[in-house]
Write a sequence for this structure.
């Protein structure tokens, strides 16, 4: 885990690039999941609503996973930031600065989420 006293520093352009890559990866991942399951239970008229619900659930899973990786002091700092109602960009940057091997952790969350979707353990439309 990264030292809470010495977080990684990203230039704004680097952050924007990473955030865009993450967003594209999540969108593609959700699209692939919906395509894989649509023959079983996703109604055509509800597809976009369902994709948004899946994306929201996936983001919650990612955030919960990352929170569990934080030190107690970083969790306290996160709570203070959340009390200030920080933006999603600020939240993502907070995790980016404090989570080592972030891509590996994202991959783990994606795999577990895919398993949940494939066995129907997510909200159905």
């Amino acid at each position: 885990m990264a030292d809470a006293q010495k977080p990684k520093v990203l230039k704004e352009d680097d952050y924007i690039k990473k955030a865009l890559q993450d967003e594209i990866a999540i969108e593609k991942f959700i699209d692939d999941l919906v395509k894989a399951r649509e023959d079983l239970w996703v109604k055509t008229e509800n597809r976009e609503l369902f994709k948004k619900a899946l994306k929201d659930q996936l983001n919650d899973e990612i955030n919960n996973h990352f929170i569990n990786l934080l030190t107690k002091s970083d969790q306290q700092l996160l709570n203070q930031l959340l009390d200030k109602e920080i933006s999603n960009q600020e939240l993502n940057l907070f995790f980016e600065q404090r989570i080592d091997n972030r891509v590996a952790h994202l991959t783990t969350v994606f795999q577990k989420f895919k398993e949940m979707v494939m066995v129907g353990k997510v909200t159905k439309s």
Summary: Residues 1-6 have pLDDT under 50 and may be disordered. The chain has one domain: 12-118.
